[in-house]
Write a structure and sequence with these properties.
Blueprint (H helix, E strand, L loop, with lengths): L8 E6 L2 E6 L10 H16 L5 E6 L11 H9 L5 H24 L4 E5 L2 E3 L1 H7 L3 E5 L3 E3 L13 H9 L1 H10 L3 E2 H6 L5 E3 L2 H16 L3 H15 L3 H15 L3 H12 L8
Parallel strand pairs: 2-3, 3-4, 4-6, 5-7, 6-9
Antiparallel strand pairs: 1-2, 7-8
Helix pairs in contact: 1-3, 4-5, 5-6, 9-10
Length: about 270
């Protein structure tokens, strides 16, 4: 399976695990418009590639992500110029909605996506990891909703997703103050699933989780992600009805037969891509 070659991301695929790395280390992986677009394309590739069963979103260089590249503001201004102020604002709104969609693409991806965070995770980095299914970090990691300190309202998903992860009070505190949250505190507030002692332990721990997921039924993984996302945004009764319909269609699969056969034969199941 061909792995896409991108300017701002580095992608590899091995043993069912796709590694998608932010790859602007000289800019502390600050996000420009190209990176937003490539992130969405990487998620499309992950969804469409049967051999990729789980994605790991990581970063090269000293930091995970320094947030939005400030040059992006000039780029957006140039793209939205118009003699009519109303049309210029309309274009800007369209671009903001498009950037929001690049992050939502992580949720829209049918495969589980794991965030592996080291050092700084700022602004747009929070947007990205909040859309992931699982989040892990090292003790050296730190998190900051920085938009408040540059006179902005965070507009790419943090204010919508963070309260569902850490609770309303903590999300408001982070968004209003812009203070740094350490890796250990991030675990305590449930922003991350686990904080590892160092970057090496983080890499090892994330790899173990990714390989564990890659060995599961791909059909069940995709269905579980879909149902969890649906349940988050709907009432319990609606979620139960939705999963009943899903399993009425998907329950009697090759994966189910393989899992039952493996249990009877006392061996590990082997699922098709």
């Amino acid at each position: 399976m061909t792995v896409p070659d991108m300017d701002t991301l580095a992608i590899s695929l091995q043993d069912g695990v796709a590694r998608i790395a932010l790859n602007r280390p000289d800019k502390a992986n600050a996000i420009n418009l190209r990176m937003w677009d490539e992130l969405r394309e990487a998620m499309r590739w992950l969804t469409r590639t049967d051999a990729a069963r789980v994605g790991v979103l990581e970063a090269r260089g000293r930091h995970f992500c320094a947030g939005l590249d400030l040059a992006t503001f000039d780029e957006l201004q140039a793209l939205t110029q118009d003699a009519c102020e109303g049309r210029a604002r309309e274009r800007l709104r369209e671009h903001i909605l498009d950037i929001q969609d690049t992050v939502t693409a992580i949720e829209r991806c049918t495969k589980p996506v794991i965030a592996s965070v080291h050092a700084a995770c700022v602004g747009g980095g929070i947007d990205i990891i909040a859309a992931c299914d699982l989040r892990y970090c090292s003790e050296a990691a730190w998190f900051c909703v920085k938009e408040i300190d540059v006179g902005l309202v965070a507009d790419v998903g943090t204010l919508q997703r963070l309260p569902k992860l850490v609770g309303e009070g903590l999300a408001r505190e982070m968004a209003f103050t812009g203070r740094r949250v350490s890796g250990a505190e991030a675990q305590g507030m449930r922003l991350v699933n686990r904080c590892f002692s160092n970057d090496a332990a983080l890499a090892e721990g994330v790899d173990e989780v990714a390989r564990t997921l890659a060995a599961k039924s791909p059909l069940a993984l995709r269905g579980t992600k879909h149902m969890l996302n649906h349940a988050r945004d709907h009432r319990v009764a609606e979620g139960l009805d939705h999963v009943a319909t899903w399993n009425a269609a998907m329950l009697y699969s090759q994966d189910l037969r393989e899992a039952v056969a493996a249990a009877r034969e006392k061996r590990a199941p082997v699922f098709r891509d």
